Amino acid sequence: MNEKTEMMADMIKKLACLLIEQNDKLTLEQALATVFNSEIYGKVMNERTSFYTQSPRYVFSFLDEELKKGKLG
Q1: Domain boundaries defined on the chain
Q2: What's the number of CA atoms in the CB half-sphere (13 Å) around residue 32?
Q3: Superkingdom, according to UniProt (predicted)?
Q4: Which of 1, 13, 32, 53 has the highest Cβ tally under 10 A?
Q5: Which pLDDT score, from 0 to 100, does residue 73 have?
Q6: How far is residue 22's CA from residue 30's CA, in Å, rounded to a whole number?
Q7: What's the pLDDT at 72?
């Protein structure tokens, strides 16, 4: 695994953990499924957006908005 791929995987893990922090009834599997099925997942995995280099809380704010509104701003 190269450094970018590791950073992307780490971001996904951190987003799932932040989801669990927000809703302690979620399992890790449910949180990961939520992240994997979001638009943000595609942005994190896209090298051109560089979302994987940002603060997890910053990226989570976009995920949270997507989950609340059903889409990104």
Answers
A1: 3-69
A2: 6
A3: Bacteria
A4: 32
A5: 45
A6: 13
A7: 52
Size (the chain), residues: 73
Position 68: which residue type?
Answer: K
User: Of 44, 42, 40, whose CA–CA distance to 52 is shortest?
Assistant: 44
Which residues of the chain are modeled with pLDDT < 50? 73
As to burial, measured by CB atoms within 10 angstroms (0-12 exposed, 13-18 middle, 19+ buried), residue 56 is middle
Helix (H/G/I), strand (E/B), else coil: 46: coil
46: alpha, beta or left, given left = phi > 0 and alpha = psi -120 to 50?
beta
Q: How many separate helices (H) and strands (E) can be counted in the chain? A: 4, 0
